[in-house]
Amino acid sequence: MDVLTALLLVHLIPVSTPKNGMSSKSRKRIMPDPVTEPPVTDPVYEALLYCNIPSVAERSMEGHAPHHFKLVSVHVFIRHGDRYPLYVIPKTKRPEIDCTLVANRKPYHPKLEAFVSHMSKGSGASFESPLNSLPLYPNHPLCEMGELTQTGVVQHLQNGQLLRDIYLKKHKLLPNDWSADQLYLETTGKSRTLQSGLALLYGFLPDFDWKKIYFRHQPSALFCSGSCYCPVRNQYLEKEQRRQYLLRLKNSQLEKTYGEMAKIVDVPTKQLRAANPIDSMLCHFCHNVSFPCTRNGCVDMEHFKVIKTHQIEDERERREKKLYLGYSVLGAHPILNQTIGRMQRATEGRKEELFALYSAHDVTLSPVLSALGLSEARFPRFAARLIFELWQDREKPSEHSVRILYNGVDVTFHTSFCQDHHKRSPKPMCPLENLVRFVKRDMFVALGGSGTNYYDACHREEF
């Protein structure tokens, strides 16, 4: 498919149908191919990628390595799957989306019924408090705010099955009689992250023994555990939020769009903006539900395009201004440090925690991507996955290498710590010591100043 065809496919979405909805017929034919994406960023195309509607099995590069390399451990960071909005557009009817899991409804997965059956047996499972009070799968006829949808469950069943085919069937990462200490599972305290983690785990280890499953609770969306106090990180975040605010003020088309939408729903523009309408609009869009109408008119696709376009511009400026990079380096360091610690223990022959799963949010994955230097990476879509693989060279058993994959694409040689690897070394994989040196010391160079460790960088006075 050439770029022109891809563009034409994207524009099969009707912009002005009677109720500004999208006919399901058109919708099904739109399968954007990231390899042939439009040359100019198209807001509708970007939104489709963000929805990540489950379709045919995707191509993925996980588990690819020269034949003399052995897979030692895998560390998976996921964003939860598709969810109901966290905000509603004021004075409009909530989008009617069913959060029960139903076999004859799309999107569907062959393991869906078995997943529900298995989850219903897990009520006695031991999870770290307060996770033990959360439901193990979504089950409301009208979704609750932020609740995982059937689409979200299917996305992660699909992720889990894909990882099972590669890491278990092909690479035998875990033995058939795997033990509880070979898994490390951690999630924030939201039902959508716990349920996403369980869906992926079920796809990965179908009908797992509940006695072997223990999810740890992570109170921080940054997964910073006991290292969360970092004043300079918070200062970077404040400056980044100020940048976002100023960019919004400069966008007259965005302000006009908010004004039009506010008139339609009969609230002050300020109130509509505060309600973060894009979150609710994305839900309508991803679920093919008409945007809301009132007697004053309808919110429509043109409004959606303007707000989505601004989001894309914001991401572009965010990369240029580097404030978010400062926040990301300090925000992502604790979890990266924990990951390399786990990798280093695996290189010593330890057999615990060979498969680690962090079930998280966009605000978890985005700083990690930025800190690794993956500035061109797309904002984490629903059910995004970021994977760190650790490999051992069988010909030189003391040598270990890492691969980084984002949504199935190998991005190792786009990272700050390995982008010059080909120039300096004939080795086909990125040495683990590159990542270790980066996390322990080099990542702080991006902040300027003299700090070469996390504590000093978090407390430096001159910022």
Notes on the structure:
The chain is an alpha/beta fold. The chain contains 16 helices and 10 strands. Helix 6 (about 190-205) links the parallel strand 2 (about 185) and strand 3. It starts with a helix and ends with a helix. Residues about 1-30 have low confidence and may be disordered.
Summarize the helices and strands and which ones pair or pack.
Blueprint (H helix, E strand, L loop, with lengths): L2 H8 L13 H6 L13 H9 L17 E11 L32 H8 L30 H21 L12 E5 L3 H14 L10 E3 L13 H20 L1 H14 L3 H6 L2 H10 L6 E2 L2 E2 L2 H21 L1 H25 L7 E6 L1 H10 L13 E9 L6 E7 L2 E2 L10 H4 L5 E2 H9 L13 H6 L4
Parallel strand pairs: 1-6, 2-3, 2-6
Antiparallel strand pairs: 1-7, 4-5, 7-8, 8-9, 8-10
Q: Care to give the gist of this entry?
A:
The chain contains 16 helices and 10 strands. The chain is an alpha/beta fold and 463 residues long.
Biggest sheet descriptor: 8 strands, mixed
Question: What is the class of the largest domain in the CATH system?
Answer: Alpha Beta
Outline type: globular
Task: Label the CATH architecture of the largest domain.
Answer: 3-Layer(aba) Sandwich
Number of β-strand runs: 10
**What is the percent of helical residues?**
40-55%
What Rg, in angstroms, do the CA atoms define? 23 Å
Order of helices and strands: HHHEHHEHEHHHHEEHHEHEEEHEHH
Residue runs with pLDDT of under 50 for 5 or more positions: 1-32
Number of helices: 16
Q: What fold name stands as the CATH topology of the largest domain?
A: Rossmann fold
Distance between the first and last residues' Cα = 50 Å
The oligomerization state is single chain
Q: Taking all residues together, what is the mean pLDDT?
A: 90
Structural class: alpha/beta
Number of domains: 2
User: CATH superfamily of the largest domain, called what?
Assistant: Phosphoglycerate mutase-like
* Beta content: 5-15%
Family: Belongs to the histidine acid phosphatase family.
Signal peptide: 1-18
Protein name: 2-phosphoxylose phosphatase 1
GO molecular function: hydrolase activity
